[in-house]
Amino acid sequence: MTTKERVNADFMAAFKARDLEKKTFFGLLKGEIQLESSKETYKGEDTDKAIITTMVKSLKTVGDADSLRELSYIEDYLPKQMSEEDLRSEIQIIIDTKGLTSPREMGQVMGDLKSNHDGAYDGKLASKITKELLSWLV
Q1: What is the pLDDT of residues 27-67, one digit of tens each?
Q2: Which of 46, 22, 44, 47 is nearest to 33 (CA)?
Q3: Where are the beta strands (DSSP E) in 75-122?
Q4: Is the pLDDT of residue 136 over 90?
Q5: Ordered domains of the chain (ranges, CATH)
Q6: Listed residue (83, 20, 81) closest to 56, CA to CA
Q7: How many CB atoms lie within 10 A of CB 98?
Q8: 87 vs 80, 81, 125, CA distance in Å?
């Protein structure tokens, strides 16, 4: 089932359950996906996934009770996030495997993470850990 189909199914389930808050939220999400799909704003990306990721970031930024409730509606749409320990371990494996020795080679680590674990890690944390691990090698 595609993301768009899943959003439609969740919208209909909320509609049938007469859950007005969920129905409204999924209706907005559905409309946003349709709008952005027609604009092709997210070139080269899965549009639905990119929209949901953007929405999650904005809901986390707001952080009030309503945003946290809405966040709970769509967390299942995102891949499971790696823990800091798992991320550190994965970055160390990439560094060891590729024989990286300089902070200037950080792009190789980040590129490998993106290609193999896209959406499953916090980019800022990955950047911080990569800088830390590569700076020890200098």
Answers
A1: 999 998 888 777 765 555 567 777 888 888 888 888 889 99
A2: 47
A3: none
A4: no
A5: 3-77 (no CATH), 84-136 (1.10.10.410)
A6: 81
A7: 12
A8: 12, 9, 9
Residues 6 or more apart whose Cβ sits within 8 Å of residue 98 = 105, 108, 109, 112
26 to 1, 51, 71, 84, 124: CA distances (angstroms): 16, 13, 11, 31, 29
Read off the pTM: 0.66
3-state secondary structure of 1: coil
Tokens standing for residue 137: 């090698």
DSSP character string of 18-84: T-HHHHHHHHHHHHHHHHHHHHT-STTS-HHHHHHHHHHHHHHHH-SHHHHHHHHHHGGGSPPPPPH
State the average pLDDT over residues 94-104.
89
Q: Hey, what are 12's tokens? A: 């209909």
